[in-house]
Write a structure and sequence with these properties.
Alkaline Phosphatase, subunit A; metal-binding; single chain; 2 domains; 4-stranded antiparallel sheet; membrane; alpha/beta; 452 residues; Gyrase A, domain 2; glycoprotein; 8-stranded mixed sheet; 18 strands; binds zinc ion
Length: 452
């Protein structure tokens, strides 16, 4: 009973302080494929300046599969891929018979089962905006302001539009929530591999220069210090090699299945007995794990959706699945298990809603959504995230980390136990009359006989 009361009190304090939080506009920026350890490997002076005035989460545990579209949709919904339905870069929907690809992604059918933050904020009466964020140009599901995807639009152009949208036209408030997407350092990570220090140093220098531009533009427009800014990413990057190829044709004739997605997570629809196809694939390669859909581990949160195909193959870190041959498609890749540090991105944030000088080792990426809802004071849709850890990043929130709360409760219980035992021992000492209760041998005095 006591721990429950204590916890209730603590969360009551937390809730009360949250209610007093005033909301400011929020800008969410994603640099695709920014692996968490780039922060240690490369200088990044502008990014470091940004989080020195705010918070840093060194590693985000993102969602499986660790690809761009699933993770960007998770950031704005707080949902695992199986729940929001954007499961991969290439999908097949067996109910509608439709196919999804990065070139054919704007059918609302794929995106409509859940509501991204820009729609929720609109329902709360706010204008919203997005520049190239995956899913933000889908018909009838767009923010107030948006672009159709065009990789040729420069970072500066995207940024200039976002700040204009956030400033408004002077007659009504600007966008309360805006999201900005940039393709680097993902593109360089694929082309050169994350272990190519020279090439990645150049790519990361450009990313850091863009972060400098972002900070300068926010200062020039007067938005710096008035809005909350989150800079994050969707996934990391692993080094691949032509020496680490897994060839499906070595194990199974291609006539036996339809391939929906290939690497590093292959999705297959068997054309004949699924168990037989599975048993061939299960023994195909020591660096590739095969799963029947029903056996995909719970922890991946990647089973409960009809768009997940009957057989899933997951390559080990740095291995590439191909159909045949010796050609390596990319020197760097992502999509692997989300438990791998190489797949993790980071998060940095600053603004009036954030604490200053706080660093956190890790956070679940699905926790960012409830954090953003709290910052905007809009009601969160049902999600897989939690504010339990994320609230420690926020100014004006009482932060009680779970480990501290548990330690406090255990300490108080221990103290109460010791006091009770001591009291009973003192009460059990022999006096003139009969002893009131049986003593506790292991803590009380030694040579006295037990009361019969
Ligand atoms: Zn990529």
């Amino acid at each position: 009973m006591f721990p429950r009361l204590l916890l209730g009190f603590l969360w009551g304090v937390v809730g009360a302080s949250a209610a007093e939080n005033n909301s400011q506009p929020l800008l969410l920026v994603s640099f695709d494929g920014f692996r968490a350890d780039y922060l240690q490997r490369f200088p990044m002076p502008n990014l470091k300046l940004l989080y020195s005035q705010g918070v840093l989460v060194e590693q985000l545990t993102n969602v499986f599969i660790t690809k761009t579209f699933p993770n960007h949709y998770s950031l704005v919904t707080g949902l695992y891929a199986e729940s929001h339905g954007i499961l991969a870069s290439t999908m097949y929907d067996p109910i509608s018979g439709k196919h999804f690809s990065l070139q054919n992604d704007s059918d609302p059918m794929w995106w409509s089962s859940v509501q991204p933050l820009w729609l929720t904020a609109q329902e709360s009466g706010y204008e919203t905006a997005a520049a190239m964020w995956p899913g933000s140009d889908v018909t009838n599901r767009t923010p107030t302001h948006f672009f159709h995807y065009d990789p040729d639009v420069t970072f500066q152009q995207r940024l200039g539009n976002v700040t204009n949208w956030m400033l408004g036209d002077g007659k009504k408030p600007g966008a309360m929530f805006a999201a900005l997407y940039w393709e680097e350092p993902d593109r360089s990570g694929h082309n050169f591999g994350p272990e190519n220090t020279t090439a990645m140093a150049k790519a990361l220098k450009e990313v850091d220069d863009n972060i400098g531009l972002l900070m300068d533009e926010l200062k020039r427009t007067g938005l710096w210090g008035r809005i909350n800014l989150i800079v994050t990413s969707d996934h990391g990057m692993a080094q691949c090699s032509a020496d680490r190829l897994i060839r499906l044709d070595d194990c199974l004739h291609p006539d036996n299945y339809t391939l929906v997605d290939l690497t590093p997570v292959a999705a297959l629809r068997p054309k004949e007995d699924p168990e037989r196809v599975f048993s061939l694939l299960n023994e195909c390669h020591p660096h590739m794990k095969a799963y029947m859909k029903k056996s995909i581990p719970d922890g991946l949160h990647y089973r409960n959706n009809p768009r997940i195909q009957p057989i899933l193959l997951i390559a080990d870190e740095g291995w590439t699945i191909v159909r045949r041959g010796n050609k390596l498609p990319r020197l760097g890749d992502h999509g692997y298990y989300n438990s791998l540090p190489s797949m993790h991105p980071f998060l940095a944030a600053t603004g009036p809603g954030f604490r200053q000088g706080v660093q956190m080792k890790s956070l679940q990426s699905v926790d960012i959504y409830p954090l953003m809802c709290r910052l905007l004071a809009v009601p969160a849709q049902p999600n897989n995230g939690s504010l339990t850890s994320a609230r420690c990043l926020l100014a004006g929130e009482s932060c009680w980390e779970t480990s501290v709360v548990i330690g406090l409760v255990v300490g108080v219980l221990l103290l109460l136990t010791i006091i009770t035992v001591l009291f009973r021992c003192m009460g059990s000492r022999p006096t003139a009359g009969p002893r009131p209760f049986q003593r506790l041998d292991f803590l009380c005095d030694d040579d006295e006989p037990l009361v019969p």
